[in-house]
Amino acid sequence: MAITLTAAAAKHVNRNLVRRGKGLGVRLGVKTTGCSGLAYQLEYADEVAPEDVVFEDQGVKVLIDPKSLPYLDGTQLDFVREGLNEGFKFINPKEKDRCGCGESFRI
């Protein structure tokens, strides 16, 4: 089981952790919502919860709750710029479909 980050994602996370002045990494998860059923969640993490599964890639700690891990295992987190837009992109080999608005997915 593993979660990885591209160099661009790791650079963006580290830059934002420095700007925040605190934090040890990012917390990834999924929630039930949207047209297709699941949506990705991402937030900066300031502490590790007892149940968290912790990965580290390119100097960034990635924390995941055990319920989300089966949906995220093998996922790569990227940070992309497309025109005037920028943001994190989840590259999940388990993802089978996305809704038209791009906010949710299904496995």
Tell me what you see in this structure.
With 107 residues, this protein is an alpha/beta fold. The protein has helices spanning 7-20, 69-72; strands at 4-5, 25-33, 37-45, 53-57, 60-64, 76-82, 85-91, 97-98, 105-106. The strands form three sheets. It has a four-stranded mixed β-sheet. A three-stranded mixed β-sheet has the order 1-6-7. A hairpin with a 6-residue loop joins strand 8 (97-98) and strand 9 (105-106). The longest helix is centred in the N-terminal third of the chain and has 14 residues, at 7-20. It is globular. The two termini are 17 Å apart.
Concise structural overview:
By secondary structure, the protein is an alpha/beta fold.
Secondary-structure blueprint:
Elements: E1 4-5, H1 7-20, E2 25-33, E3 37-45, E4 53-57, E5 60-64, H2 69-72, E6 76-82, E7 85-91, E8 97-98, E9 105-106
Parallel strand pairs: 1-6, 2-5
Antiparallel strand pairs: 2-3, 4-5, 6-7, 8-9
Structural class: alpha/beta
**Main β sheet profile:** 4 strands, mixed
Large-scale geometry: globular
Distance between the termini: 17 Å
- Let me know the number of strands: 9
Instruction: Describe the strand arrangement of the main beta sheet, using strand numbers.
Output: 3-2-5-4
Number of helices: 2
Entry keywords:
single chain; 107 residues; alpha/beta; 4-stranded mixed sheet; 3-stranded mixed sheet; 17% helix; 45% strand
